[in-house]
Structures are given as structure tokens and as C-alpha cells.
């Protein structure tokens, strides 16, 4: 059993962290306050080879595995989760094309993502359904060689900035099996009948675009179907198996960034004539934070590595995502507390880390759903 990263993997970590420090740091506060997506930073991330690193070389990517994807994500999120999600997260949803799309679909859409020419989205969640995937109600009705789509989606990452989205649609509503009712359909964002409304006022990851999307008689060719019709439930479960370790790496990176800033602060902050880092109570908290982060990191790396070995484990992926998200929230709470009153103002980044952390327990499967997945596999 070898826990050492290769020289190339360590270089990827260093490259990603330096990129984030150089490109994210100057604009973090602005993008957070203005809820602003940075197209310039996204395109720079593409040029640096950080976007779509999991896409094979034949489709314009670096051909790395999900472990490398997790390593890059961790280092970017160490500096700013919102900007990380809006840059390397610009490929969200495209995993479905890679996993289940035709050769023509892969060749047409995937290269644009890594070159900074297009952004994708995954349109799954609806106003009345999220965790219960089988209950999603946006419809796609066949009409000749087209689908006509009606319905709405909510909390869609990249919703107003994407060039296309992978939409989870109800195509076989009368099926007795709930798992054989839905299909995945690629929908270009410039088609008639699409209304996209940006969601403002989020608690965190404010640099990441989030939207409500409404479909009113939107027509798309049947050739935009991803995989087989009525098989999307299984596709989506497999998709989340691929993305949950990446969300876990977001949690690890965010927690590590909060710890980095806290260690620096407690070494500089003087109380009663000496740095508060001399206080044993402070030291105990730092030790607990570091230990939980390392535990989450090892769980995350194992989940991502297992994916690359063709041994995807839904339970392990759920463990990584749930635990890393919970650790991020816990660590950021401790970090803010150790900063005292300074942690409560936006002059110090720790308050942004604190606000950003909570989403890691919510999106791509709330932690309660992850626990259900783990327990059901056990039972």
C-alpha cells in the first residue's frame, strides 16, 4: 500500500495552488461581494490545463484520472471555493457525455470545454424535487425527430452562463418502474423557449453562477439524447459516483485553507504579551482541525483512486462526500472562533470560508442522503 503521490501529481498540486494564489486572491473579495463570475480567470484556468483534466487527450483534455482531478480541485478550493467551482466546475454535467455519449457527441462538445470556448451545466434539481431523483417532472415528449421539453429546474450551477446543459427529463411517465422513466437530453442554451434567471443572495460560493431555468416548448433534435432513452436514473447515479469524490476534495481544500489562515493568525495575534498560539487550548483545537482534515483527505483520495481503478464504490464515495463536507463546516467554525471578532468581518477571508462551507453538506446530495446510501449498502 503506497500513499505517496507521484512527482507529476505533486507538480499538479503545486501548479493549481500557485494559480489560485496568483489569479483568485486579487479578485476574491470583489467576486464574492458582487456575486460575479470571472470569465477571464476561467479562460486562464483553461489555458493552464486545469479545466477538464479528466477528459481524454483525444477530446482536448489532459487525460488524467479522477485522483488528479481531486488534487487540482483541493488546491484551488484551498484559496477560494467560489472561484474554484466557477472555473474548473465549468465542465459540470459534461461527465455524462464522456460516460454515456456517442462518439460524435464527445468529439463535438468536449474539446470546446477545455479550450475555454464553452461552459456546460447539469440541469437536474427542480423546485419541488432534488434528492428524490425519480420524482423529477420536467417532461420531454417525442414529436417526430424532436423532443419538446417543458418544465423548470432550480439551483443549476452555471445556469445563466452555460452554452449547453444536460437536462434530466421525464420521457416514460407510465412505466411501473420509477427508475425507467427518465432520459438525459443535451439542450443548447440559445434554443427558443428557455428562460434563465440568476439566483442572487446566496450565503456562499457567490462567485459561482446559480440559476433557475424554465423550459417552455423547447424543441431539440432526438440526436441530442445522451445514452439510451429511459435509462437516465442509472446514468445519474453513476454520474454522482464520479463527482462526489470531487465535491469531497472541495471540502478538504476549503478546510485546509481555513486552517492555513488560522495558523498564521494565531502566531501573529498577541494577547497578554504573547501569541495566542502559545495557549494550549488553541493548540488542541489546531490539532483536532488538522487530524479531521487528514482523515477526510485520505478518504477522499481513496474514493477517487478507486474510481480510476474501475472499482467505483457508491458507499465509499458517499462517505467521502458526507464526511469531508461535515469536516469543512466544523473546521471553518473553529477557524472563525479562533479569529475572534476579526473573523466576523470581511477584511479576513475566514468569514468567506465559513459561509462557503455549508454548501458542501447540501449540493450533489445532502449529507442525510449520503448516510442513507452508506447504510443501505451495509444492510
Q: Strand order, biggest sheet?
A: 1-4-5-8
Poorly predicted tracts of residues? none
Give the full name of the CATH homologous superfamily of the largest domain. Butyryl-CoA Dehydrogenase, subunit A, domain 3
What is the global morphology?
A: globular
Number of domains: 3
β-strand number: 10
Measured as a percent range, the helix fraction is 40-55%
Under CATH at level 1, the class of the largest domain stands as: Mainly Alpha
Explain what you see.
There is one protein chain. Helix content is 48%, strand content 15%. With 379 residues, the chain is of the alpha+beta class. The protein has three domains: 7-114, Butyryl-Coa Dehydrogenase, subunit A, domain 1 (Orthogonal Bundle), CATH 1.10.540; 120-230, Butyryl-CoA Dehydrogenase, subunit A, domain 2; 234-378, Up-down Bundle (Butyryl-CoA Dehydrogenase, subunit A, domain 3), CATH 1.20.140.10. It has a four-stranded mixed sheet. Strands 2-3-7-6 form a four-stranded antiparallel sheet, with no helix packed on it. A hairpin with a 2-residue loop joins strand 9 (270-271) and strand 10. The radius of gyration is 21 Å and the shape is globular. It starts with 6 loop residues before the first helix and ends with a helix. The relative contact order is 0.11. The mean pLDDT is 95.
